[in-house]
Amino acid sequence: MMLSGWGNYPRVDCAVLRPRDTEQVTDAIGARPTLIARGAGRSYGDAALNRAATVVVTRLNRIASFDPSSGVVTCEAGTTLDELIEVFLPRGWFPWVTPGTRFVTVGGAIASDVHGKNHHLDGTFGRHVISIDLALADGSVVRCSDNENPDLFAATQGGMGLTGVILRATFRLRPVETDLVVQHTTRTQDLSQTLQALEDASEATYSVAWVDCLARGPALGRGVVYRGEHATLGDLPPDRGGRPYGTASIRSRTVPVSPPSFALNRYSMGALNAVYYRRAKTGRALVSYQTFFYPLDALLRWNRIYGRQGFVQHQCVLPLASCAEALRELLTMIAARGTGSFLAVLKLCGEEARGPLSFPFRGYTLALDFQATAGNFSLLTELDDVVAAHGGRLYLAKDARGGAGLLRDGYPRLDEFSRTRDRYDPRRRFRSVQSERLGL
User: Fold this and answer.
1) What is the strand order of the sheet 206-211 is part of?
2) What phi and psi, each to the nearest 5 degrees, are found at residue 112?
3) How far is CA 374 from CA 298, 307, 343, 384, 434, in A?
4) I want to staple 4 with a disulfide (CB 3.0 to 4.6 A). Which of 11, 102, 216, 405 is the partner?
5) Using CA atoms, how far apart are residues 165 and 25, in angstroms rounded to an integer?
6) What is the share, in percent, of the chain residues with pLDDT greater than 70?
7) In angstroms, rounded to a whole number, what is the distance separating the alpha carbons of residues 329 and 337?
8) Can you name the residues that pair with 318 across neighbouring β-strands?
9) CA proximity to 201, closest of 236, 229, 235, 230
């Protein structure tokens, strides 16, 4: 069947398997020459696509155990963060690290070593993982952790599914007193103010900036910066009646069809950006966790907005020393082309994770969406050159068209990752369209 990542680009004809248990996973490994695991299909590009066998693990979604005194949970890889939140938030627990959608699986979160608005303090999802059960290329199942197969434990975090099929994981949840977030909003006039506002917010648990990537001249890099903290019992509004977990489910709407590609152009995008910027309400507000962490989840299938040809996301991380200069170059090029995205997100990252292919390092990460067109691909190649010149790297979970050279330059621990794969999968049976494209 035809499959794609969340960006709907590329679309690849794949043989799809949907195992229900560990035995069916190991049977698939034994029967197929190559394969790759896939979760909920939320990685943007071609990382979870394999023509010979794409193993969709969403039926492996059972929660095995939970310790209410420590927040340690063990669940199968196909369990989504949304399912965990439904069960554990009313008990006072929330994912320690979450990306911008709650519809990712635990296996996908580990394989991509996802990060969130708190990376500057709490690192990636993998920092809070205690152990992983992994099906290897020879069909065996092993547990890896800091003490058991530590090289495999590290390589699997951010390893894009290339070390094996993640079956189960044990990890920590964060204690919270309520399901609300205290949000502080600041509107900035240019890139310097945006970076300063994020720096000022570095002691907040969560921080993120939306950037108007089509603003030019003195307004280049203007944006809206959000800081957030989990609300305490003392922050509860009177209408809650003292109930800490009373947020009603937000009814999501669905984009029914893909609009024509000409609907998105520099004029419509520029108008959307200008309206969003001007309507941002500055100051303190008490908001639901869905509003703060998952605003895009309110619009199901929002990936259809970019049309039938799909879209690609360009997410890079840049070192602190040169990030201001690099970001100015990137935003100037995008604004000049007039083809930027409505989604332009800037975040401060903290220390690098243990995974050799884990994405974030200390610096700033910028994420932008572009329609999958030949013109935009040309621009993206130019953006890649800026990223490479400043010592940055691209996020493999979002990538659908980057080159092998940028991978080698951006991930200096690539050889360490390859040595681990040589040990556990010398024939490279776990592979994807992405890994073949990048020579991984």
Assistant:
1) 283-288, 180-188, 223-230, 206-211, 344-349, 363-371, 311-319, 393-394
2) -95, -5
3) 30, 14, 20, 15, 19
4) 11
5) 8
6) 94
7) 12
8) 364
9) 229
3-state secondary structure labels for all residues of the chain: CEECCCCCCCCEECCEECCCCHHHHHHHHHHCCCEEEECCCCCCCCCCCCCCCEEECCCCCCEEEEECCCCEEEEECCCEHHHHHHHHHHHCEEECCCCCCCCCEHHHHHHCCCCCCCHHHHCCHHHHEEEEEEECCCCCEEEEECCCCHHHHHHHCCCCCCCCEEEEEEEEEEECCCCEEEEEEEEECCHHHHHHHHHHCCCCCEEEEEECCCCCHHHCCCEEEEEEEECCHHHCCHHHCCCCCCCCCCCCEECCCCCCHHHCCHHHHHHHHHHHHHHCCCEEEEEEHHHHHCHHHHEECHHHHHCCCCEEEEEEEEEHHHHHHHHHHHHHHHHHHCCCCCCEEEEEECCCCCCCCCCCCCEEEEEEEEECCHHHHHHHHHHHHHHHHCCCEECCCCCCCCCHHHHHHHCCCHHHHHHHHHHHCCCCCECCHHHHHHCC
**Pick from 311, 308, 312: which is nearest to 260 by CA?**
308
Give the residues across from 370 on adjacent strands.
312
Nearest-10 crossing angle of helices 323-337, 191-200: 130
Phi first, then psi: what are they for 56, rounded to 5°? -85, 120
Closest CA to 29 of 138, 118, 187, 117: 138
CA 234, 240, 246, 250 torsion: positive or negative? Answer: negative
User: Residue 12 pairs with which residues in a beta bridge?
Assistant: 3
Distance, CA of 363 to CA of 361 (rounded, Å)? 6
Q: How many residues does the chain have?
A: 440
Would you state the structure tokens that stand for residue 359, as one six-digit string?
């994405």
Whole-structure pTM value: 0.94
Tens-place pLDDT, residues 86-116: 999 999 999 999 999 999 999 999 999 999 9
Please provide residue 279's backbone torsions phi and psi, each rounded to the nearest 5 degrees: -90, -5
Under a CB-based contact definition with an 8 Å cutoff, are residues 10 and 46 in contact? Answer: yes
Band of pLDDT at residue 339, cut at 50, 70 and 90? confident
Q: Which amino acid is at 296?
A: L
Summarize pLDDT for 299-311 with one digit per residue, the tens.
778 888 888 889 9
Encoding tokens for residue 27?
């049977």
User: Would you tell me the crossing angle of helices 374-389 and 323-337 to the nearest 10 degrees?
Assistant: 160
